[in-house]
Prior knowledge:
- The structure is a single chain.
- The chain has helices spanning 2-16, 21-24, 38-52, 72-101, 110-128, 136-144, 150-158, 160-171, 176-187.
- By secondary structure, the chain is mostly helical.
- It has nine helices and no strands.
Amino acid sequence: MSVVIHEVSHGFMAEYCGDKTARHAGRLTLNPLKHLDMFGSIILPALLYFSSGFVFGWAKPVPYNPDNLRNRRWGTIAVASAGVLANFFIAILFGMILRFSSSLSVPTGFHFIISSIVVINLALAIFNLVPIPPLDGSKILFNILPESFYPFFRFVERYSLILLIIFIFLFVDHLFPILAYLYHLITNLSLI
């Protein structure tokens, strides 16, 4: 559901900024079936889970047309930021529940479930801020930097799949300290 909320947030922000593409496509819904990507939501996560225990995947991106936004540059930044901010909001909300319920008598597994929601949403938000297309961080960064960087942007977009795979296999572990720090900041608990 966190991935679904992430994608729907993109669509609502695009609509707020003037583009109704997501609404016309029927994608402004929390129904997870509307957001399933056969490969990214089912096949790849299953293959990874059964081969390594590691799970990675994605939902079908909510469509939007940057040409329909009232302000293409800042609208694109707002649309890209909306999904990340939605995940941070969910992490903070459930993190506060975890923080204030740690001294209460709650059912077995409650803390594990709430903690998992916080970790998943922090991981989604942090990972999506990596500035490699098609991740949201690239849309934010590429629209903040001046036009003189466009040749670099085209290079990164051309090799984005290779760069993303390299990042996942070689550098994704470097995101864990950020996740652990934010988890502790929100919940006042240690992640490890």
